[in-house]
DNA sequence: ACCCCTCGAGTTCT
DNA sequence: CTCGAGGGGT
């Protein structure tokens, strides 16, 4: 969706007010009038929900448990005095009796990870090679791998306590899903009670909820006959059926379940993936019959091809084959990278392709000024979804593929999600089609758009950027969206749509304007609540959401500024090193001269090199950026980044350096292990290092450690210390 | 001087 | 999710 602005939009200078909220001592509840109570209630709801989200989803609570309890208590008091405020919108309804309109969120005890993908045979052999080298297994050592079809459904997590189904949830974002227990209980393949002598006290069973193909067709026939919604494919039908608020409806839908894995478990009935899954079958689950234990790459690939041949004849949809290292001790040693395990991979079937006509190319302007071409396509169904847009990435990509407007092009959904344009079908090219000429000026503000030259490589950057900066309305809007977005300032109710209209109407032009919105609205004749689509409640909620972010963790604030090359992680690094914005700004200004300590300090931070440091320096060198930050700080207080709240291991929060040859595990394993225990692994010894683990052959790092008086231990001592 | 991995930035659709 | 760039190690 492109932005459509009147091209010559004047840059709006908005009055900036000093604004202070009256955070004076809270009134005793009985003295409040209904309006005050409603206001405070709304404010508390937003604040509590924000904390909940940070706690459950981001794993980064920003207040103490005690303070959080205070907020909940205050909310309870107000609701007791003004029961009308107890609504579905209140987080208190989660613990209260009122049934929520949505499903309750459930946090998975062990996150539900996603799998890395393999598309070619080579990716599979690479995977096995990586596993062997990570584990230091010789090429001829046996390495059993379990292969099973990847069912195209939705994964679910079933928590059994004492053998009884306690909670069933969807995968959600992997960390937190929705509680759909009553719905899952209607599925015949899901036992409510597990039978067996080796059933653990507590175990989370994981598997796939799906709908068989013929059941899906029958359901659609029935739905059509009753004039109800028909589903695009079995997966959508399964998802729609599972997420019914009325479990009675789910019961009438022919859902099935294959068990294939587990999350938290108080104990396990076996020491290999295949044996544990076999135990699931004994306990009463259905497991997939095409599961096979293989011992070589050839065998895995043969099984893949066998399944691929049988694919059409199978009673359910599948989109690939999953390979899992069978031995659980090896799985544990392999651990995980980012959010997928290193011991499993999904070998996908080739993506479905379709052809359609390229009817146009839009150019979007990003917050950094980047011009991104987006293909406008004649709508076409690919993999069960109608695709109308597809990114063309950049200028070079269009030239490389030589796609022209009017061309018939091949489209596929890569990794099953993002549509990709593979290229034109030349035989179908209209005779008058001309090569696409990428605009050299910004389509929104008309400024020159240039490809910067990378100072390191001397090569041109792939992206062309609008040089309009401040005067480009598209950039201004995108920056504001970024500022308010969930991982940045996280201002609820100030979404993309709102920002676009507020900007267009001159209400918000710069970040600081967000925080003066309420005060200006109070004086304005044209009130927000009179705008179309707005009411008194939504305005109150918005102001409450804004107020809730008048204090934010420094890392969020820095990320929100949108400094080039400073994303979430780098913002955290900066926040950890400089305890407030002013300190960072002073350091950046000082570093501009490259004399004195400031520049060296900046580049010394692990993860920050000259390019990133330069971006920070340049940001604060701009007068308008400094004044934007200054104005923001009139309204926003930053707080220090809370230290990593991690496992109570002895090395949690410590910075560890591994050096020399490690004999029991590889370097990668050591790093993964330390990180699992909440430690930060650094590459070189500095004053920030807490612990050095040295193997034989350690050299300069060991010397440096003793100079700095840092504790050095051996690999064996490391294992003792972390209790492994 | 390269190679690998992580991070940033941009994107689609339900 | 994917691509390219940046950082850091070899």
Automatic annotation (TrEMBL):
InterPro entries, alphabetized: BRCT_dom (IPR001357), BRCT_dom_sf (IPR036420), DisA/LigA_HHH (IPR041663), DNA_ligase (IPR001679), DNA_ligase_AS (IPR018239), DNA_ligase_CS (IPR033136), DNAligase_adenylation (IPR013839), DNAligase_N (IPR013840)
Keyword Transport: no
Entry keyword 4Fe-4S: no
Cofactors: Mg(2+); Mn(2+)
Binding site for NAD(+): 65-69, 114-115, 148, 171, 208, 324, 348
SUPFAM superfamilies: BRCT domain, DNA ligase/mRNA capping enzyme, catalytic domain, Nucleic acid-binding proteins, RuvA domain 2-like
Domain (BRCT) ranges: 646-724
Superkingdom field: Bacteria
Keywords on record: DNA damage, DNA repair, DNA replication, Ligase, Magnesium, Manganese, Metal-binding, NAD, Zinc
Active site: 150 (n6-amp-lysine intermediate)
One biological process term in Gene Ontology: DNA repair
EC numbers: 6.5.1.2
Gene Ontology molecular function, alphabetical: DNA binding; DNA ligase (NAD+) activity; metal ion binding
Amino-acid positions noted as binding Zn(2+) in the UniProt annotation, renumbered to this chain: 442, 445, 472
CC terms in the record's Gene Ontology section: cytosol
Family assignment from sequence similarity: Belongs to the NAD-dependent DNA ligase family. LigA subfamily.
PANTHER family reported in the protein's UniProt record: CHROMOSOME TRANSMISSION FIDELITY FACTOR 18 (PTHR23389), DNA LIGASE (PTHR23389:SF9)
Functional description taken from the UniProt entry: DNA ligase that catalyzes the formation of phosphodiester linkages between 5'-phosphoryl and 3'-hydroxyl groups in double-stranded DNA using NAD as a coenzyme and as the energy source for the reaction. It is essential for DNA replication and repair of damaged DNA.
Protein name, per record: DNA ligase
Organism, scientific name: Agaricicola taiwanensis
């Amino acid at each position: 969706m492109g932005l459509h602005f009147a091209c010559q939009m004047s840059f709006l200078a908005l009055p900036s007010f000093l604004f202070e909220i009256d955070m004076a001592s809270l009134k005793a509840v009985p003295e409040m009038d209904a309006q005050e109570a409603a206001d405070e209630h709304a404010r508390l709801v937003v604040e509590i929900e924000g904390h909940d989200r940070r706690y459950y989803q981001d794993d980064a609570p920003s207040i103490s448990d005690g303070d959080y309890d205070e907020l909940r208590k205050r909310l309870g008091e107000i609701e007791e005095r003004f029961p009308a405020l107890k609504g579905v919108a209140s987080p208190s309804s989660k613990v209260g009796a009122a049934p929520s309109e949505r499903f309750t969120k459930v946090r998975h005890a062990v996150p539900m990870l996603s799998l890395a993908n393999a598309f070619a045979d080579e990716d599979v052999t690479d995977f096995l090679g990586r596993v062997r080298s990570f584990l230091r297994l010789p090429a001829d050592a046996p390495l059993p791998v379990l292969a099973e079809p990847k069912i195209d459904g939705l994964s679910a997590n079933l928590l059994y306590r004492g053998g009884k189904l306690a909670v069933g949830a969807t995968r959600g974002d992997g960390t937190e899903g929705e509680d759909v227990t009553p719905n899952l209980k209607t599925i015949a393949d899901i036992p409510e009670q597990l039978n067996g002598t080796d059933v653990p006290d507590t175990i989370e069973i994981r598997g796939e909820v799906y709908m068989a193909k013929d059941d899906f067709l029958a359901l659609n026939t029935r739905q059509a006959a009753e004039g109800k919604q028909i589903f695009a494919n079995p997966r959508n039908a399964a998802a729609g059926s599972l997420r019914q608020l009325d479990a009675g409806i789910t019961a009438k839908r022919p859902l099935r379940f294959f068990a294939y894995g587990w999350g938290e478990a108080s104990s396990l009935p076996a020491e290999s993936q295949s044996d544990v899954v076999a135990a699931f079958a004994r306990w009463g689950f259905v497991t997939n019959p095409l599961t096979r234990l293989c011992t070589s790459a050839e065998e895995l690939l043969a099984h893949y091809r066998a399944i691929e041949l049988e694919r059409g004849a199978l009673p359910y949809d599948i989109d690939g084959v999953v390979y899992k290292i069978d031995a659980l001790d090896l799985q544990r040693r392999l651990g995980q990278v980012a959010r997928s395990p290193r011991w499993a991979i999904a070998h996908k079937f080739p993506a479905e392709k379709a052809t359609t006509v390229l009817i146009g190319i839009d150019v979007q302007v990003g917050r950094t000024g980047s011009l991104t071409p987006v293909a406008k396509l004649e709508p076409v169904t690919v993999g069960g979804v109608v695709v109308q847009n597809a990114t063309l990435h950049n200028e070079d990509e269009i030239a490389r593929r030589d796609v022209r407007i009017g061309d018939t092009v091949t489209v596929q959904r890569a990794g099953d999600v993002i549509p990709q344009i593979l290229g034109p079908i030349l035989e179908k090219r209209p005779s008058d089609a001309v090569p696409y000429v990428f605009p050299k000026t910004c389509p929104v503000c008309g400024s020159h758009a240039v490809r910067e030259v990378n100072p390191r490589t001397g090569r041109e950057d792939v992206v062309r950027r609008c040089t309009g900066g401040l005067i480009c309305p598209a950039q201004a809007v995108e920056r504001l969206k970024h500022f308010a977005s969930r991982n940045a300032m996280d201002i609820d109710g100030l979404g993309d749509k709102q920002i676009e209209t507020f900007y267009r109407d001159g209400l918000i032009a710069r970040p600081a304007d967000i925080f003066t919105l309420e005060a200006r609205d109070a004086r304005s004749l044209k009130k927000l609540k009179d705008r179309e689509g707005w009411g008194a409640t939504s305005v109150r909620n918005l102001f409450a959401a804004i107020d809730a972010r008048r204090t934010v963790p420094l890392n969020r604030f820095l990320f929100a500024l949108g400094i080039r090359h400073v994303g979430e992680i780098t913002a955290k690094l900066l926040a950890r090193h400089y305890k407030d914005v002013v300190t960072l700004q002073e350091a950046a200004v000082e570093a501009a001269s490259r004399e004195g300590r400031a520049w060296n300090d900046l580049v010394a931070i692990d993860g920050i090199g000259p390019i990133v440091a330069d971006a920070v320096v340049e940001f604060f060198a701009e007068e308008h950026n400094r004044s934007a930050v200054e104005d923001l700080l009139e309204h926003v207080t930053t707080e220090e980044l809370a230290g990593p709240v991690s496992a109570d291991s002895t090395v949690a929060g410590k910075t560890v350096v591994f050096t020399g040859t490690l004999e029991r595990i590889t370097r990668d394993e050591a790093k993964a292990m330390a990180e699992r225990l909440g430690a930060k692994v650094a590459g070189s010894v500095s004053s920030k290092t807490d612990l050095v683990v040295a193997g034989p052959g350690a050299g300069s790092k060991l010397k440096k450690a003793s100079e700095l008086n840092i504790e050095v231990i051996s690999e064996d001592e490391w294992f003792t210390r972390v209790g492994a």
